[in-house]
Amino acid sequence: MIRIVPVKSKKDLMKFIKLPFALYKNEPNWTPPLISEQKKFFHPQKNPYFEHSEAQLFLAYKGDDLVGRISAHTNTQHNKTHNDRVGFFGFFESINDQDVANSLLDAAIAWLTAKKCDAIRGPMNFSVNHECALLVDGFESPSCIMLPYNFRYYKDLLENAGLKKVMDMYSYYTKVVPPPARVSRLAEKIQKRYNITLRELSKNKKDMKKDLETIFTVYTKAWENNWGFVPMTKKEFDHTVKELMPLAVPEFIYIAEIEGKPAGISITLPDYHFVLRKMNGRIFPFGLFKALYYKNKISMLRVPIMGVVDKYKSKGVDVLFYHRSFETAMRYHDKYYAAEFSWVLENNVAMNRIAETIGGRIYKTFRIYEKSIA
User: Fold this and answer.
1) Sorting pLDDT into bands at 50, 70 and 90, what band is 289?
2) Domain check: are 253 and 149 in the same one?
3) pTM for the predicted model, two decimal places
4) Per-residue DSSP letters for 81-141?
5) Structure confidence by residue, pLDDT tens digits, 321-352
6) Residue 155: how many CA atoms within 13 Å on its side-chain side?
7) In the prediction, which pLDDT does 283 show?
8) Under a CB-based contact definition with an 8 Å cutoff, are residues 173 and 361 in contact?
9) Residues 34 and 140 in one domain
10) Which of 22, 171, 192, 231 could, after both became Cys, cross-link 342 (CB 3.0–4.6 A)?
11) Could you tell me if residue 257 is inside a domain?
12) Domain range holding 28?
């Protein structure tokens, strides 16, 4: 008998947060999140997501054993942007039991139906601006920063419950090596032809603030026509910046300008998942020392954001971003040996082609599912 319980108390929330630690205790490729950060993420007064949308968390019990979890949530930013009534699920975890998965999804569907949604899509934790999608290929290594890792059998659980693929996203892997000569020649030609300026994020506090405002504007414009894109509110963007800036290296963050106008942005981050795997979810008593020690041993980079404003997309700005990122990574070659470009939508022909041109190979595939509930 499967029993589904809505999360209503702090005690329930801690069970929700800690369940993956039990499920993945023997899986070295899973990255434990910081428990303190998870508590803040689900706190309505500390996560600006809750200023425009709602969420309900559920726990699944089989007898007295906690065996699964799921969230059901609305996303008014998505619905306004795409003029639809899609609802979402996320934070899905389950033992390998179809009845448990079905019961969790049924609870999420019932909650979303009451909110007048006509479809359920996910996994989204809570949106495309957070961790999202299900890993369906590439289980041999951990996922990079801001990307999920899950059991291989989750794909069967979701598909057997009637969910269908709606979009795949690719992660490209490449070694940190000097840019191919043909790419260097192409980058030089593009820069001269269109008089493109690439500059790093300012380290001056006042100028950095202006640069971050530019990044917010370009991010909204550059992705507005992408499948599933959800614009962040200014508060959500500021919240994300506050979380990520301590991890960022300004030399890996670029703004492209053409005739003095912002044309695109590129952000590369060190893979701090390597550090989190050493901390096991806790900062204290020794996690802080582990973080300080292991952050200097990170050897992987991830490019989570690279976008160009529509009117400049035909000018090769993205080629310059890739080229500069490689050049910068080579300056740190004794530190970083590999990089990941992700994720790239399967229907983004141009970006997939560029990733392949610079030597990238698809090594992980993530999938978004959907099901009509009307």
Assistant:
1) low
2) no
3) 0.93
4) HHTS-EEEEEEEEE-S-HHHHHHHHHHHHHHHHHTT-SEEEE-EESSTTSEESEEEE-TTS
5) 999 998 999 888 778 999 999 999 999 998 89
6) 13
7) 72
8) yes
9) yes
10) 171
11) yes
12) 2-170
